[in-house]
Amino acid sequence: MTGPARLVVLVSGSGTNLQALLDACADDAYGARVVAVGADRDGIEGLERAERAGVPTFVRRVKDFSSRDEWDRATAEAVAGFEPDLVVLAGFMKLVGQEFHDRFGGRVVNTHPALSPSFPGMRGPADALEYGVKVTGCTLFVVDDGVDTGPIVAQRAVEVDEADTVDSLHERIKAAEREMLVDAVGRMAREGFTVEGRAVRFGRVR
Ligand code: GAR
User: Does the active-site annotation cover 112?
Assistant: First the structure.
């Protein structure tokens, strides 16, 4: 790969993970740049963060398409237009479909607010709190066709406090998540990575 790795980041909400990547990419030594930000909804802070950083954005809403497959195809098409080396799902609250897997399989990572394989899905922090675990955390994984089941790139542990609410726990997880994401995506960009079965390793194939 010549030049910085091209990242397309997909968001659905506040975009603090996106912001951490945008901030990291401001340093040329980081080895990556965010070439576009996509979303499945309008009016979110994540899109405003991209606009403030001068990064192109696009929105593809499920309800504007006749089927979920059509939406997936349109999203994949929009992403492909920016020729990404890596697609980062950073708080993207949709499962991507077959077209997306076919085009970008093995080059899509997702950050999840729990320590996989525990608590997959949309309620990671709430499920961890309800279960009563003392340690939870966050996971960056290479997306496969399951729900938060892909090969693990990086994880960080976060202790649960007795006084935690879902929000306070999620905020601490997100702080760990931003560090994990910036560190791991930077390494993927600079060093390359391989996926063999469930093992993800940094570094190029020798
Ligand atoms: C993050 O904690 C991310 O892991 C989670 O949404 C949050 C987004 O925060 N994603 C999921 O739960 C996906 N299953 P952000 O918009 O501030 O980056």
Answer: yes
